[in-house]
Amino acid sequence: MAVPKRKMSRSNTRHRRSQWKAAVTPLVACERCHEPKQQHIACPSCGTYNKRQVLEV
Amino acid sequence: MPKPTKGARLGGSAAHEKLLLANLAKSLFEHGRITTTEAKARRLRPVAERLITKAKKGDIHNRRLVLQQITDKSVVHTLFTEIAPRYENRPGGYTRITKIGNRRGDNAPMAVIELVEALTVAQQATGEAEAATKRAVKEAEAKAEATEAVEDAAPAEESKEA
């Protein structure tokens, strides 16, 4: 079985992990209630999409 | 010939997918709108719309074809007597899928699939007008192409003679 020959340095580990980031979800204002919501998805606060009620709130 | 669906089936096997989609279609016709995962909604849409197309024809043969998939007779009855007449003037597109974000627990993207409302008189008129203009444009293009072809052919013959 292939195994690492050397211990990975703290520096290398930390450099690798410095690229390990979470992306910010792009949000837009809801047309109806102006709360932030995801594009192309029904608004979770007022439950509308394209001014049509989709979810019960 | 219809192209077979590529990739994994919903639920693991072809038989399971068939049952699952039939049950989803049954629930959709029973309740008018259902909340499910986006993948299931996208797979359900063509299945449900084909059933509605059969219901619009309304004869006993089509009713038996629908009963092969949906075995609940009362649901098939509502499909034929209430849902199908609503879409008399609608040329397909009987369902609407709206994404509603990810589910808590497994983060699966969820969607609402619903039967759309009947066309209003105004919508029907605009639809017919759009279709008519499309047809007119197509015919005009075809005519233009035909005349161009004739014009192209004529000079070529002349050059050969010269």
TrEMBL record, chain A:
Which InterPro entries would you find in this protein's record? Ribosomal_bL32, Ribosomal_bL32_bact, Ribosomal_zn-bd
Name a single GO biological process. Answer: translation
Q: Where is this region: Disordered?
A: 1-20
GO CC annotation: large ribosomal subunit
tRNA-binding recorded as keyword: no
Checking Pfam families in the record gives: Ribosomal_L32p (PF01783)
Q: Where is the composition biased (Basic residues)?
A: 1-19
Family, as annotated: Belongs to the bacterial ribosomal protein bL32 family.
NCBIfam families in the record = rpmF_bact
- Which PANTHER family does the entry link to? 50S RIBOSOMAL PROTEIN L32 (PTHR35534), LARGE RIBOSOMAL SUBUNIT PROTEIN BL32 (PTHR35534:SF1)
- In its UniProt entry, what is this protein called? Large ribosomal subunit protein bL32
Q: What organism is recorded for this protein?
A: Streptomyces mangrovisoli
UniProtKB/TrEMBL annotation, chain B:
Instruction: Please verify whether the record's keywords include Iron-sulfur.
Output: no
What domain of life does the UniProt record list for this protein's source? Bacteria
Keyword annotations for this protein, in alphabetical order, are: Ribonucleoprotein, Ribosomal protein
Q: Which InterPro entries match?
A: Ribosomal_bL17, Ribosomal_bL17_CS, Ribosomal_bL17_sf
**Origin species:** Streptantibioticus ferralitis
Q: Where is the composition biased (Basic and acidic residues)?
A: 131-146
Which gene name belongs to this protein? rplQ
List GO terms (cellular component aspect).
ribosome
Q: Which HAMAP family match?
A: Ribosomal_bL17
Protein name stated in the entry: Large ribosomal subunit protein bL17
